[in-house]
Every structure is written in structure tokens, then in C-alpha cells.
Amino acid sequence: MQPKRFAPLLLRSTIAGLLATMALQANAELAPRFTDADGNLVADTPTDESQWVDPDTLVFAYTPVEDPAVYAEVWAGFLEHMEQLTGKRVQFFPVQSNAAQLEAMRAGRLHVAGFNTGSNPMAVNCSGFVPFAMMAAEDGSFGYEMEIITYPGSGIETMEDLAGRSMAFTSPTSNSGFKAPSALLTSEFSLVPDEDFTTDFSGSHDNSILGVVNRDYESAAIANSVAHRMISRGVVNEGDYQVLYTSQTFPTTGYGHVYNLHPELAEQVKEAFFTFDWEGSALQAEFANSGEAQFIPITYQEHWEVIRTIDEANGVTYDCN
């Protein structure tokens, strides 16, 4: 499993510096109700079998997007495959925000999910999320880049030109939509959000991209994988915005299950991800535009190390109250 090519050097050097000055292993911050006896940073399956959940209907949620109905159709074939392997009804849950998705799993209403890159640490530590898969290309490469974009004619030609202007972030839990650009702008350009430029939260990458294209926002921090899919669907065109900066490659959405799912059911859920036939599927049609063609196994401990480092650089703590 190889990450995709690394794009421009600036944020890569930022992260390298952070890794050099911080512990490579972020401290575990699991909520007190979880245990981590094996030290892999995710919640263990309860030893008390009475705490296992084995629902008649499995609830699945994909990370929030502008139009959840589109993705209900995209995931329909995959969820049918999961139904066949688990013998359960599988329901698509169209979440409207990262907070709603996190709370649904924490409260036991969500069993299987794809959490976006930046919200994985909160999902793991506060909601008992156990990520085990990620989308990847046929050659095993994976990931996406954070981009900072503006619209043609905005007068913003360089990162330094952002001083005194405005930028849209997506949500505080988003890696490419908030955490990574905040670290970059502060450490490399001495631009502090809400001091050197004004900020808005759009709620999603789709909203940020459309906001820039429609000139509601002067600039935005986005995940380019989302932009590629929007371009492929004809929602926006390549010339509708210009890219000011492209980051290193980050892990993309992590897929997994809640920690107390019955172990046999959890294994069947994993099997559904790793045996799904992408050829001719709606998943292939949607995600091939950003390079994905399969699910590959991952671990939170290894693949989210750089994200935990960014969180530490931003002073993020996983408050589970």
C-alpha cells in the first residue's frame, strides 16, 4: 500500500518539522468507557458479551456531503452486498454534519461508517469507531491533497495575498477543510485565522467549492478528491476556480464499525468491504474520478499518524464530554 505522489514541498516540510519535534506516537485519548489493552489506539471489543450489539438492521453512514441522496444511490449496490454477507438489512443514514455522524455512533444508532480524514481521531476516541479500510487505486496508492482555491479575477494570486481577505473552511473536524490549512497558514505564512484573514465554515467541501465558484467566498481550503468528483459530474468546471496551493497526500475517508459490534458480525462487515466487486458498480463510477478502485486494509495507528500530529500542532484535544 503506497500513498499517492507527494505534491508541493511546503506543507510536506511543515509536517516533517512537526514530526521531528513531536513524539511520533500521539498519546491515546480514548474516552474512559473504552479500553485499549493491545495498545493499537482504538477501543477493544468488550470482554462482556452482554455489551455486544447484534442489530436486525445495520445502519451505515458516509461522510457528510452536499446532497446525501446522490450518495445513497452510489452506495446502494455495496450495501446490498453487505446485506448478502451479513444476513442483515442495511440502511443508509444520510448525515448532515460531522457532529451528527459522531453523535449517532456514540449513541449506538450508527454501526458502520465512513468518517472523513480529520474526524477519524474524534470518532475513534469519543465514539468507539474502529477503522479498518480505505479506498485506494488499483496499484494500492491512496489519498488526496488539500488545496487552497480562489476564483479567477479575485486578486488573490499567491498565498501571501490571502492577508486581509476571507477563506472558507468546512468544519472544525475536517483535516483538509480546516486542520491542515490552519497549521500551514500559521507556520509557513504567518497568517492566523480570524486575525490576518476572516473565516467562514461552509459545512462541506462541496459547499466550499460551490461558494468559491459562485464568489460567495474569496478562497477556500478543500479536498481535491471532492473537486475531481464534482468536475466529473459536471457540477463545476476546471476553469471555474484556480488553485493557489496543493499539499502533500493525506489518507482519505476511513471505513469501519463501532467497537462493540458482535465480533462475528464485525468480521462479516469487513468481508463485505474486501470482497465487493467494483467493476461496473456505482461506487466505481463515482470514485474512479478521484482514483479509487478498491478497498484496502489500514490501521488507525499507522495511517492516521500524520493527522494526529497535525491535531497536536493545532492544540486539538479529543474532548468527549
From TrEMBL:
GO terms for biological process: transmembrane transport. Pfam families: Phosphonate-bd. Residues 1-28 form the signal peptide. Keywords: Signal. InterPro entries: PhnD. GO terms for cellular component: ATP-binding cassette (ABC) transporter complex. Belongs to the phosphate/phosphite/phosphonate binding protein family. This is Phosphate/phosphite/phosphonate ABC transporter substrate-binding protein. The gene is phnD.
